[in-house]
Design a protein that fits this description.
This protein is an all-alpha fold. The protein has one domain (3-109). It has helices at 3-35, 41-66, 70-81, 85-109. The two termini are 18 Å apart.
């Protein structure tokens, strides 16, 4: 894995958890708006919208650079629209990055598996 691919995966991983948190907070704000006088939906909507757009941009870049299959690319997109999916995406991306580091070390050291 080259440095640009690793960077693209890292960016996607770093934005996936905050995007999931903002989604959950937006849901809480929506409930509070309907049950109380508290209305933070416009602010949380903007924050979540910004993070979601970042996620989609980073997702497209990671899909292009990592050359994921259609199934993997679509899975990461579907995880972005589920309320807690960003946490699962972050975990999978972390595992994928760790596996790539191990594989690159094996290749660099010439160790046969």
């Amino acid at each position: 894995m080259d440095i640009k691919t690793a960077t693209a995966l890292r960016r996607l991983r770093l934005v996936s958890a905050p995007e999931a948190v903002s989604f959950l907070l937006l849901l809480v704000c929506s409930v509070l708006k309907r049950t109380t006088d508290f209305n933070a939906v416009p602010v949380m909507g903007a924050v979540h919208g910004f993070l979601f757009v970042l996620y989609v941009v980073f997702w497209a870049d990671a899909w292009n650079r990592a050359r994921w299959s259609a199934r993997t690319g679509i899975l990461y997109f579907v995880l972005s629209v589920l309320p807690t999916g960003g946490f699962f995406a972050e975990r999978r991306l972390k595992r994928e990055a760790e596996d790539a580091v191990v594989a690159s070390r094996v290749v660099a050291e010439g160790v046969k598996a």
